[in-house]
Amino acid sequence: AAGANDVHQPDTLCAQMGKSATLNCSHTKGSTYREMYWYRQYNGESMELIVYTTSFSSPDFGKFNNNDKYSAKKAVPESGSFTVNDVNHNDSAVYFCAVREHSDRETG
C-alpha cells in the first residue's frame, strides 16, 4: 500500500504470562493523521478492530468497552500505544496499527 512505510510498529513482541504487553506505533505522515486504529488478527481469521484512538478524545473500544483486557494511549498525533493486560495463550495474534487523516467535515 502507498505510504505503508510511514507507519512503524514492532515486528515481534514476546510477553510473560500474566503480565502486560505494550505495543507502540508511530508514523511520519504529519500531525493531521491523528486517528489511530488497533486491530487483532488470529491465524486464519480476519482482522478485528479493538480500539480507535485520537489525540483529542478518550479511546473508543466499541464492543471491548468495560473490558480490563486492553488499554490504549494517544497523547500526540504522531504516536500511540496499545496494551494487552494479563497476557495468556489466547492473546497470541498479529496486532496491526493503522493511521488515518482526521477530517473536520461532517459525514452523513
UniProtKB/TrEMBL annotation:
<dbReference type="GO" id="GO:0005886">
    <property type="term" value="C:plasma membrane"/>
</dbReference>
<dbReference type="InterPro" id="IPR036179">
    <property type="entry name" value="Ig-like_dom_sf"/>
</dbReference>
<keyword id="KW-0391">Immunity</keyword>
<dbReference type="InterPro" id="IPR007110">
    <property type="entry name" value="Ig-like_dom"/>
</dbReference>
<dbReference type="InterPro" id="IPR013106">
    <property type="entry name" value="Ig_V-set"/>
</dbReference>
<dbReference type="InterPro" id="IPR013783">
    <property type="entry name" value="Ig-like_fold"/>
</dbReference>
<keyword id="KW-0732">Signal</keyword>
<feature type="domain" description="Ig-like">
    <location>
        <begin position="18"/>
        <end position="108"/>
    </location>
</feature>
<dbReference type="InterPro" id="IPR050413">
    <property type="entry name" value="TCR_beta_variable"/>
</dbReference>
<dbReference type="GO" id="GO:0002376">
    <property type="term" value="P:immune system process"/>
</dbReference>
<dbReference type="InterPro" id="IPR003599">
    <property type="entry name" value="Ig_sub"/>
</dbReference>
<dbReference type="Pfam" id="PF07686">
    <property type="entry name" value="V-set"/>
</dbReference>
<protein>
    <recommendedName>
        <fullName>Ig-like domain-containing protein</fullName>
    </recommendedName>
</protein>
<dbReference type="GO" id="GO:0007166">
    <property type="term" value="P:cell surface receptor signaling pathway"/>
</dbReference>
